[in-house]
Amino acid sequence: MTVTPPVFIDVDGSRIAVRHTAGSVPGIVWLGGYKSDMLGTKAETLSDWAAREGRAFLRHDYSGHGESGGAFADGTISTWLAQSLAVFRHFTKGKQILVGSSMGAWIALRMVQELRKAGDSNVAGLVLLAPAPDFTAELVEPVLTQAQKRDLTEKGFFEEPSDYSAEPYIYTRSLIEDGRDNLIMTGPLDTHCPVHILQGLADADVPASHALKLVSLLPADDVTLSLIPDGDHRLSRPQDLDMLMRAVDAMAQRGN
Predict the structure, then answer these.
(1) Which of 44, 58, 80, 206 has minimal Cβ neighbours within 10 Å of its Cβ?
(2) What's the pLDDT tens digit per position in 90-103?
(3) Residue partners of 150: CB distance under 8 A and separation at least 6
(4) Topology of 7-133+187-255 in CATH?
(5) What are the pLDDT digits (tens) for 101-113?
């Protein structure tokens, strides 16, 4: 398979890699997870689907991820949010559906807040997979060991083995501190658009209780929660990908 090279835009001094295909609206905007890149299984599957449907599709790598410049350890939620907003504003026209995976769901929800603050109501829907909003405060900080706390204080970061990569995950003090400035699960969330959440019940990284808490903060009449009994955090099996495409397609039909 030949992968089309990305285009690059500069966002606050970072060289951000972007792939954009023009097509009908609402377009699809992919937002990947922590340490993920835009050529992962879910993003590629959605890209193929969008091409078949003739639908616009946009994806990018955050700084320190994939083909983008910058060091991973320099990234924060605010940094990656600013990059995502810049890419969104530069490449999209008309209504869009944000599809966020894990940390990408946090970015997507923050994007909606920032876009609406700026008077932009072009988000037609959200599809969130194994959503991990506020993960630094809700899922990382509460279980820090004494050794990890010491590393954060003395070194400014700690490392943790990853199930998804040969390289360890790095969590920096700046990521955790900045996360507190981007918390969204502190009260009701009005996205002003429909939301569909896909959550695996066998997810070892983001427990289903986290998705349920998120649902409890969203207006109930516009939220669909699909629980996948044997689904893990990746949600990349054929049956998971099929469910993702059906969810995005249904959202796109609503937005037409």
Answers:
(1) 44
(2) 999 999 999 999 99
(3) none
(4) Rossmann fold (3.40.50)
(5) 999 999 999 999 9
